[in-house]
Design brief:
The protein has a single domain, classed as tt1808, chain A (Alpha-Beta Complex). Helices cover about 25% and strands about 35% of the residues.
Length: about 170
């Protein structure tokens, strides 16, 4: 088994913890309730639109083939048809990826994941930076990351998600 496959196989079998591979390092974490509150606020606002688009949202595995990365986003929106019987999906198969920072992983979310999600075609990456109390929406993925950046904006400022969402998200309670 090649090293990439071995590492990704291992991290999937670590048990009930939230585990991922970031640039070849296994990262274990157990999200705290204040972290979950932020993600839940976004989830609640997306729910109706996600159903309308015949999609699912959750924190399933995302593989980045050819790299030593296996991400488990805080929230991803994917077409329902892709989730049936699927293991890991690819970032390009998502409609939106959301990461909320924690003190232990903030730099991964701000830099590594921003770059990698863009390189692997995630059309929208929403970064909720809990330490800086701001959000940034990245779009137009390309080989170096993202071409377009909306933000950073302070929590309390409305987020406009472009097509296919065409939806405003209230961040005043984040």
């Amino acid at each position: 088994m090649d090293p990439e496959a071995a590492l990704k196989y291992s991290v999937q079998r670590l048990g009930p913890r939230y585990s991922e591979v970031v640039e070849g390092l296994i990262v274990l974490s157990e999200p705290m309730w204040d972290h979950e509150k932020v993600v839940d606020q976004i989830r609640d606002q997306l729910r109706e639109k996600v159903r309308e688009l015949d999609c699912l949202m959750g924190s399933g595995d995302l593989d980045l083939p050819g790299s030593l990365n296996w991400f488990v986003p805080d929230l991803a929106v994917v077409p329902a048809v892709l989730a049936e019987g699927a293991g890991a999906l690819l970032p390009e198969q998502t409609l939106l990826v959301v990461e909320a920072t924690s003190e232990s992983n903030a730099e991964n979310d701000r830099s590594v994941k921003r770059k990698r999600y863009g390189q692997y075609g995630a059309p929208l990456y929403l970064l909720l930076d809990r330490q800086r109390l701001e959000w940034t929406l990245f779009s137009e993925p390309h080989a170096l990351g993202y071409a377009k950046q909306d933000g950073p904006h302070p929590f309390g400022t409305t987020i406009f998600l472009p097509a296919p969402f065409e939806l405003e998200l209230n961040t005043s309670r984040l």
